[in-house]
Structures are given as C-alpha cells and as structure tokens.
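note to self — DONT lose this again. spent like an hour looking for the file last time. sequence + predicted structure for the chain T wanted, 477 res
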Amino acid sequence: MYPAGLFGVEGVKFNSSVAGYWLLSCMVLCIPLSAQQGSTDGQWLYYGGDLGSTGYSSLDQITGENVGDLQIAWRWSSRNQGPRPEIKSSTTPLMVNGVLYATAGSRRNVVAIDAASGETLWIWRMDEGERARRAPRPNSGRGVAYWSDGRGDERIYVVTPGYHLVALDAHNGHQIESFGNEGVVDLKNGLGRPVDPIEGIIGSSSPPIIFGEILIVGAALAVGGRPPSPENVPGHVRGFDVRTGRQNWIFHTIPLEEEVGNETWEDDSWSYTGNAAVWAPFTVDPDLGYVYLPVEGATGDYYGGHRLGDNLFSSSLVALEVATGERVWHYQIVHHDIWDYDNPTSPILVDITVDGREIPAVVQLTKQNFAYVFDRRNGEPVWPITENPVPASDVPGERTSPTQPFPTKPAPYDRQGVRIEDLIDFTPELRVEAEEIVSRFRIGELFTPPSVIDQENQTGGTLTIPGSLGGANWEGG
C-alpha cells in the first residue's frame, strides 16, 4: 500500500463521496485457501493490514469497472517534512477511525491526516542531531504502529532514524510521559553489547508490531557489502511493555554461549559478528500467540570467512512466543549466507487445504525467488524441502555450506541462476558481444558463490540472478 505520488498522498472522490485511495499489494497463492484474514470495516490497523500480514481488504466499492471514474479530491505533500526532499515515500499509512497515521520526510516525522479532507491534524518531529545524520536508515521509514486499550488510551509508536522508540498520543501527537523517559526509549541500550550512541551502526526503517501488551522491535544495520571489520552490532529482537516501555525480553538472533544455535558459529565468531537483524516487518498469529521473525544474514554480506559455520539464526524464519520471547521453532532458509539473501518480507499467514488437510500456514517470500511454506504451529514444511548440493567457494578463507534448502513446491516465481542461453540474441552481433562480456565473469546456478576479481587477467566476480535486491524485497507479500 503506497502513497499515490513521490512526495505525498492523494485522496480521490467517487460518486460524490470522498475516500482515501491506497494501492494494496497482496499475494495470491496458487493453492486453495480455506480461510481469509484481512482488515475489516475500512480500517488498516497494521502495516500489513492485519497481524497476519495478508495485505487484504474486503472493501468492494471500487471495482475494475468503475475505477476509471475516480477523481482526485485532495493532496497532501511531504516536501517540507525534512532538510531535504525524499525522492520516494515507502510509508504505508494506517487508517484508524477516519485518520491516517504515517511517517514523512528524512527526519521521519509522524503525521496525522484527516482521511476525508486531507487536513493535517498534527505533526510530531524529533531533532536527533548528529545521531540522525549518521543513521544507517536516514529516511521516512515504512510507517508506525497503533495501539489502544479500548478505553480511550490510543497510541502511535515510531522508531526514529537514530533508533529511539517513541510513544505518542494518537489524538494530539504529544509524547506519552509515562512511557520510557518522557515518551522515549533509547534502543541502543539493552542489546547486550556496547553501542556508540552517535555512530550510525544500528537503526530501523520498519515499524514495530504490537500484540496484547507487548511491543516488538527489530533493527536495520549499516549495509555490510564491504564491511570495514568483521565485527558489528547484533540485531537482536526485543519485546517491550507497551504501556511503560520496559524491556521484557530479548531474543538473541546470534545465540550466546550455551544457547541453542551457538554451536553453528565456529571459533567464537558469535561473540563479535553482528547483523542477523529483522529489518523487514514482523507477523503475529493472534491465536497461537507467536511472532514470526524474517531474519537477515550476518555481518559480511558476501564474505563469511570470519564466521565459519551455518550461523543460526541468520537468514532464518523464527517463531517466538510473544509473551516471553522464547523460541518455538526455526528454519534456516540460507546456510552461511554470503549472497545477501536476507529474508526481506513480512511472513504471510494463510490457511490452506492440501490433500484434504487444512493447514494453518506461514509463507516466507525470499530474494532467491522461492516461497517457503510451513505449518505455522510447528515449523514443519507443508511440502518437502530438500537439501540440494550447491557450488563451493574458492575464495581464500571461505567455506560455504555444501547444500542449501530448495522447496519442492511452489515452483520458483522468477528466474534463478545465469546461463549463456539467457543472453540476448536480437542480432548475431549482439549475441557475440554479450557472450564476450559475460565471459569475463563467473556465472552459474543459484547459490554460485561470490568470487575474487582478478584485475591482472581482467576478469570480474560472479554474476547472479537474482541479485541482492531480489527476487522479492520488502514490498513483496
């Protein structure tokens, strides 16, 4: 669901009535659905429409037949919401009782907009100074989270570029003084490792998710394509008391000593490796009380010689109990990830029927063009996932996993791997030129590892499809 413009949002009118018009993105699986979740009554209370991230609305006033009759009723611009204009807006506004709540501008201001008129109701901003200027994600982010106790206490929560968690009164935008330190929790504290308060190492661009009295926060770290060091801050996931801001629990995405998964980090590499954060949005099953974590790769997007082993829980889908943060199940989707194949999308909850069996499932779309489908109760694959042999790395110091998990169903939704047969052949001359260019690089099947550039022989590294942007990325699902 995206604003209908680069710098603002638009309302449209239809049949003399005014409505906010948002493009909803949704995933349709080519399997029977026995149940459909989604937003109700025109509300959009969560980033993904509902806790299950289905991105689905049952509204049917606008159809394929009448969509051409829509007219613009109002515009709201975010051009002046920061020291510089943004070239795009990634925010997904929430719709709560006729009010749109969104983030805007490079300072990630929070705005409340009357959905019927486009009138600005309130704006909140925080000047984080140098801390924001050095932030790894200095942009408007993807939105906010909403919570209500059902008795008049309604709140909006945002994670700022400088990695502060802020609670606002949804009615007026004032900070909730009883939450944290006058409405603010410094998320750089409580990670278990020292974090410089100014250096732009860790932040976030996705909103938190709230279920019951627990607010869950992830992280986004500095891009690790060429890390200056194998060390970084770990992207552990934390649960906070939604009323007070007290940290209730922490789940170590890079397991500490004696924790499950620590044995997959050789030579104590768990103690200094970072990332393995959840920068994509979370998903919650309200019936089970589980939150699903799409975890990214560990520090060193394209080299892991300093962190040998499978590196749990990086590049994994993990289910936790919301109340306690205790792990229920996990499945590692990429072993020892050196392709930057982070899990980029919020997992999607669907109830499916397979061979007459009704299965409550969770679907993880990936950059590598696979959809991994699990029974969301226990993590069992709905269809077999096989460990297939993949090419080994010849980079000095590197040791890749000999196999990677390949789903047998559904089929890949786009191309995988680079082949000579895929090169353009519009003319014989262009084909010859294309083959000559590609001959300077290493190509191959999915999971062909990165390689060393040989400048002396004028050969490049590895060409991959899909690349590090996917496949699916954060817009998917």
